[in-house]
Design a protein that fits this description.
Elements (H helix, E strand, L loop, with lengths): L2 E4 L2 E4 L4 H7 L3 E3 L2 E4 L1 H9 L10 H7 L6 H12 L5 E3 L4 E4 L10 E9 L3 E3 H13 L3 E7 L5 E9 L13 E6 L2 E5 L13 E2 L4 E4 L1 H9 L3 E5 L2 E2 L2 H8 L6 H13 L2 E5 L7 E5 L7 E6 L4 E3 H13 L3 E8 L2 E10 L2
Helix pairs in contact: 2-4, 6-7, 6-8
């Protein structure tokens, strides 16, 4: 079956309709079938069509003005050879359920193709996931590494439900030791039950900086500096130089506590927080705070997902936006 190139489009005559009817290739037109560059590459690669003057290598060069093309081809080929019908758009690809095709079924995945070195803008990801969700599909990233291996990630927006309200601890008085806050609190004040801080002895608890800030904001911890009371903003000013990520961590910590989750430091796992739901023994989530406009390279996200998977936790990135905090989950999947 012979095709031709016109204005960077690959066209087949009416005989091409069979490719669409049988396997979902291309888009039918009045006088034949229009193929996307990646579809044409695949069909030439498999010897199912011919384009005079081009073999696979020269056709790949012809379409390589798109620096994305080799990655797109590799992902397209991989998904096709897993038994799925694939069409281009509205992101990079839409993938139909196995055994289904255009006009006779519905798509299951919307796929975005990335390099391991691409920067992830969480605002962009959030908008794409919302679009996919509105279409009742699953949003998938197909990440091609520098050795051209492909890893698939499902990306979801996680709406954390509010948990059962637990009582606040009773007010306590603290002292400042450098940037650390130590409160006087025996067991009756409820700080142990609410999982704040680390007990120094039966009478004292040492608070993490984000915990101290939050408790000061709630009016539960008071620190006297001479005749004045240290304000939460004043405390943050004192400690901000020691933690450049303080503001975004406090914003996410505050939000999680408002929902009745228990965030504790995630340092041992290489992230901002490990998060407990209620009074469960083991944390269920790792959470990384992402400031407005912040980006992360995909290979960094990959490390985070692998770490979370190895310790049987969900990996959430808490994006701080004008409308509030949005939790985005990344998880490896097999198509």
């Amino acid at each position: 079956m012979k095709a031709r190139i016109e204005d960077n489009k690959v066209l087949l005559g009416s005989e091409g309709y069979a490719l669409y009817e049988q396997s979902g290739f291309g888009r039918p037109q009045k006088d034949g079938l229009r193929l996307s560059p990646v579809e044409a590459l695949y069909l030439v690669y498999r010897g199912r069509i011919e384009i005079p003057g081009f073999d696979f290598d020269s056709l790949l060069v012809r379409f390589s003005e798109d620096a994305h093309m080799i990655r797109s081809f590799l992902v397209y080929r991989d998904i096709r050879e897993r038994g799925y019908v694939v069409q281009t758009g509205p992101h990079d690809f839409r993938v139909f359920k196995r055994g289904e095709k255009p006009g006779k079924g519905e798509s299951q995945y919307m796929v975005r193709v990335l390099s391991e070195r691409d920067l992830i803008d969480f605002a962009v990801v959030q908008n794409e996931v919302k679009t996919t969700l509105n279409m009742r599909k699953q949003h998938v990233l197909a990440v091609v590494d520098d050795e051209f291996e492909i890893t698939y990630y499902e990306v979801k927006i996680q709406k954390l439900p509010s948990l059962e309200v637990t009582p606040d601890p009773k007010p306590a008085v603290g002292i400042l030791s450098s940037i650390s806050v130590i409160i006087t609190a025996d067991a009756d004040l409820g700080y142990d039950q609410a999982f704040y801080g680390k007990r120094l002895d039966e009478a004292r608890i040492v608070l993490a900086t984000v915990e101290a800030t939050y408790l000061m904001e709630q009016g539960l911890v008071t620190i006297h500096l001479g005749e004045e009371i240290l304000t939460p903003d004043g405390y943050c000013t004192l400690i901000r130089d020691s933690d450049p990520e303080l503001d975004k961590k406090i914003a996410v910590y505050r939000h999680l506590r408002t929902l009745q989750y228990i965030p504790k430091t995630g340092y041992k796992f290489g992230h901002h927080f490990r998060v407990y739901s209620g009074r469960k023994i083991h944390s269920e989530m790792l959470v990384q705070a992402i400031d407005k406009g912040e980006t992360l390279p995909m290979n960094s996200i990959s490390r985070s997902v692998r770490m979370a998977h190895s310790v049987k936790k969900k990996m959430l990135f808490a994006g701080i936006h004008d409308e509030g905090i949005v939790f985005i989950e990344f998880a490896r999947i097999k198509l």
